[in-house]
Amino acid sequence: QAELEESGGGFVQAGGSLRLSCTASGSTFIRANEIGWYREAPGKEREFVAGFKRDGSPDYLESLEGRFTISGDNAKMTVYLQMNSLKVEDSAIYYCNGLWKPVVWGQGTQVTVSS
């Protein structure tokens, strides 16, 4: 059973950038390229944001319009989400979890984008 911890959220002005981190611990059976990002805004359903396809290539929510980049560091057991050109509508709690073998959701990290 892996434990996932999100970090890197904060307050940012529209157009700014943040880099989120998701670090896995407690299990050697989940790899960085098996972890994806999700987000949940107030009053909205949690949605997939970014992850990896089975072949390891990145996969993104189409509506992001290329503004986010996911990357992983297997040595550090960490997955990153580089968020550029942030919009107010990106404001949400961002979570990470296994793409194919989900574990218990963590508390996420809050991203708040102001206009």
Helix content: under 10%
Biggest beta sheet summary: 6 strands, mixed
Q: Over all CA atoms, what is the radius of gyration?
A: 13 Å
Distance between the termini: 40 Å
Structural class: mainly beta
Secondary-structure element series: EEEEEEEEEE
What is the 3D form? globular
Number of helices: 0
Largest sheet, spatial ordering of strands: 2-10-9-4-5-6
Mean pLDDT metric: 94
Counted beta strands: 10
**What percent strand?**
over 45%
Low-confidence stretches: none
Key words describing this protein structure:
mainly beta; six-stranded mixed β-sheet; four-stranded antiparallel β-sheet
Give the helix/strand layout:
Blueprint: E1 3-7, E2 10-13, E3 18-25, E4 35-40, E5 47-52, E6 58-60, E7 68-73, E8 78-83, E9 92-98, E10 109-114
Parallel strand pairs: 2-10
Antiparallel strand pairs: 1-3, 3-8, 4-5, 4-9, 5-6, 7-8, 9-10
Structure write-up:
The protein is mainly β. Helices cover 0% and strands 50% of the residues. It contains no helices and ten strands. The protein has a six-stranded mixed beta sheet with strand order 2-10-9-4-5-6, with no helix packed on it. A four-stranded antiparallel beta sheet has the order 1-3-8-7, with no helix packed on it. The termini are far apart.
Describe the structure concisely for a colleague.
The chain is an all-beta fold. It contains no helices and ten strands. Strands 2-10-9-4-5-6 form a six-stranded mixed sheet, with no helix packed on it. It has a four-stranded antiparallel sheet with strand order 1-3-8-7, with no helix packed on it.
